[in-house]
Design brief:
The protein is α+β, with helices and mostly antiparallel strands. About 30% of the residues lie in helices and about 25% in strands. It is globular, with a radius of gyration of 27 Å.
Length: about 450
């Protein structure tokens, strides 16, 4: 029970804690319809557009931090189209009834109809019994608070260590505070302002990511050149052209500028594979040297890690200098980073200590651009593995050092802009969480005209 507003004048004690005297304490069953689910139709990897004539069934990943991502669906195979039964309707709430312990019961609000998208059997759709009593958008916000996320998770059960389920009874009997409808709508409206701001920043991030991807494709293949290198911008020539285009040459990786070259990874620098000091010897771990695994590689630069090695453990590891480029070559292939401090890694990671004839930032971007080739080298196995020898011999395109630095500078600027936008988005999300907590518990009141009580 929440102790917010305890003994505060104008508040009363209920099953859900202290709430304003003009609020009610009811169960979800009293204000919502029975949850309905769908059919888990067979589909393929292709997603359908919400506006086309194809039929899609929702994936669990369509519910993201309270937001509905309509593109997280799979196209239903022809034989299963007659079996789908519950289309996505406007002004409803979707609930992940079966998921991991962290995500079971997560919800999102649906603003409009999606007649060609249907529920799977793992997702519920819920609407208000009466729009004169409940704003379903308001309820969605309430169920996204930390307190209600904990309450829903506590009601989930299951024998699997990873997947949990919540029953209709467990969900519908959950008690909730209920403000008067005008206040519900005002609260939902205020939070929607933050939602729109978060969404707009998200669109800017997506646009910057698309720009960066395009620049990488152009700059790292020589299709786009900088004026200071005295070359005009060339269009890539098709391989079947009969004549050799001026200023270009044919290579094992396609057409490239004639002063560029193709070389194996080992010519960029020294390749070192990490290792794991014995975890049976606790003295190997503690505060000291960062020890990087794929889990730590969520950002371009690695400064600190979840696990560190002690001085004893560091002596048993392979310490890398600041600036080493870290390439995940087992399982999580495609996760790359740059060490900003001296550190060690586990055996999942091959590090390249880039030599003075090459730029480490350029090599980082070249590795990111060649993710698909690394996956192909690793093969189609349960745990993809790109061993050190194969990695060292992989061929990359290499411009001269000065052009490497220029390319890396442009791409680094893109990354910095993306990182600033992500920080702005996170700040907005934190502001929204704080405001949501105050408004949905009645700690801060708003009137229908927007005035704060």
């Amino acid at each position: 029970m929440s102790k917010r507003n305890e003994n505060r004048p104008g508040y009363k004690k209920t099953k859900v804690g202290w709430i304003p005297e003009d609020w009610e304490c009811l169960t979800i069953k009293e204000v919502c319809s029975q949850p309905v689910s769908g059919f888990s139709a067979k589909g393929n990897a292709e997603a359908v557009s919400p506006n086309d004539s194809n039929i899609g069934v929702l994936r669990l990943s369509c519910i993201i931090e309270g937001y509905f991502n309509s593109y997280e669906n799979k196209k239903v195979v022809q034989a299963d189209i007659p079996k789908v039964k519950t289309p996505i309707s406007k002004d409803t709430m979707l609930i992940s009834r079966s998921n991991t312990e962290e995500l079971v019961g997560v919800v999102c609000y649906v603003e409009k109809d999606y007649p060609n998208l249907f529920l799977s059997d793992l997702i519920w759709q819920v609407s208000a019994k009466s729009s004169e009593i409940l704003s379903i958008r308001w309820l969605t916000n309430l169920l996204l608070t930390k307190e209600y996320r904990r309450k829903i998770a506590a009601r989930a059960n299951g024998t699997s260590g990873s997947m949990k389920k919540i029953t209709k009874g467990g969900f519908l009997t959950l008690p909730i505070p209920l403000p008067p409808l005008p206040e519900q709508k005002k609260i939902a409206g205020i939070l929607s302002v933050w939602d729109r701001a978060i969404e707009q920043v998200g669109k800017l991030i997506d646009a910057k990511l698309r720009l960066k991807k395009g620049l990488m494709q152009q700059l790292l293949t020589g299709r786009m050149r900088f004026p200071e290198f005295n070359h005009e911008t060339h269009e890539r020539h098709e391989k079947d052209k009969g004549e050799l285009p001026e200023g270009w040459k044919k290579s094992k990786l396609g057409w490239i500028p004639e002063e560029w070259e193709i070389c194996p990874v080992r010519q960029f620098g020294t390749v070192t594979t990490g290792n794991t000091p014995s975890k049976k010897e606790p003295e190997n771990y503690g505060k000291g040297i960062p020890w990087c695994t794929a889990v730590d590689m969520e950002h371009k630069y690695i400064v600190q890690t979840e696990v560190e090695l002690s001085e004893i453990g560091a002596q048993k590891a392979r310490i890398l200098p600041s600036g080493a480029v870290l390439i995940t070559c087992i399982a999580s292939i495609g996760k790359n980073a740059i060490a900003k401090v001296a550190l060690a890694t586990n055996q999942q990671i091959n590090a390249v200590i880039v030599n003075n004839h090459n730029d480490n930032e350029f090599f980082y971007y070249a590795a990111c651009q060649n993710e698909h080739r690394m996956l192909r080298y690793a093969g189609q196995t349960a745990v993809p593995i790109l061993n050190k020898s194969e990695f060292e011999n992989m061929l990359f395109i290499r411009p001269h050092l000065s052009e490497q630095r220029r390319i890396a500078s442009v791409l680094s600027t893109c990354d910095k802009e993306i990182e600033l936008l992500k920080k702005k988005q996170e700040k907005l999300k934190e502001q929204r969480k704080g405001l949501m907590q105050k408004l949905l518990t009645g700690e801060v009141r708003v009137k229908a005209d927007g005035a704060v009580i």
